[in-house]
Amino acid sequence: MSERHKTATGHTGAAAQSMADNAVLQFADNALAQALFGSHHGHLALIEERLPVVIRPRGNTLTLAGPAEAVGAARAALGALYRRLERGLAVDRAEVEAALRMAAAPSGAADFESLAVRTRTRHVTPRTPTQAAYLRAIDENELVIGEGPAGTGKTYLAVAKAVERLVRGEVDRIILSRPAVEAGEQLGFLPGSMREKVDPYLRPLYDALYDMLPAAQVVKRLESGEIEVAPLAFMRGRTLTNAFAILDEAQNTTAVQMKMFLTRLGEGSRMAVTGDLSQVDLPRGIRSGLRHAMETLAGVEGVSFVEFTDADVVRHPLVSRIVRAYDRVEKRRGAAARYEQDGGTPADD
Questions:
Q1: Does the pTM of the predicted model rise above 0.90?
Q2: What is the DSSP string of 210-273?
Q3: What is the pLDDT of residues 308-318, one digit of tens each?
Q4: Residue 18: which H helix or E strand, with range?
């Protein structure tokens, strides 16, 4: 057994013996091994479906065969999942998918655990290489802008990091904000108080909070002001010190609104801005503040940009296919519009 291979797997409780395109993995704990393999070996079948490998289980031992790169990826994914089980965490189909994506990344499965976010009720690990880069960027920069399609975890991960920092005492409060673009000038005509009018647009932020903290803690911290969920308009004129501020749905801000929010940053604070430029709801002719900020702040020290794609969608697999289908239509429409602007005719093709 090579020294390199011992280093990669020895601390997981699994021993491995590998050749160019074969590997034998033996797991020390039989119960954990069965959880790793999945009901009726479903997790192993999923790995075989995703990678060109053949996996033969026997007791708590696995034999892997296939191209060296695929065998290496499968071995790394299985090792990461086994370590997760050793820490008492569950492994399901989604975690297997995540482990495979992370194992295929240049940095391997290491980031799968080293960047985990721990809150009172959640142990959140990145499920794609881009998510890992996003969490790393939030740790290393005062301002992170995450752009990409729905379902990629942009807001969820930002809220997780904010809650982790609040619980650790690294920030004094969390500010979560969204533009209530859909309501527009109709807010005044809706029944109820201002909070009752805007809360439906902020509900996704509340949902993420309740995922990260016990319900009683969320209520208590909202009442004390440690956590604030507010429409973007409420941010004007404030300076946010020792806070973690998140602006969600940022594609629906104007350039003026975006500048207003970004300039609220005070001492000891961090900001995460998230949005999807394919879902701008602004009136025609008004440019998205998110796009403007991404162009304006390029190269500015302390600002990091992370762009997600449909490959990072971690909801139901159908969501990723839906995103790709819409992208194809938008690209065709864009090409047709450019063709028409250039005065093209069918004979020009």
A1: no
A2: HHHS-HHHHHHHHHHTSEEEEEGGGGTT--B-SEEEEE-SGGGS-HHHHHHHHTTB-TT-EEEE
A3: 998 888 766 67
A4: strand 14-18
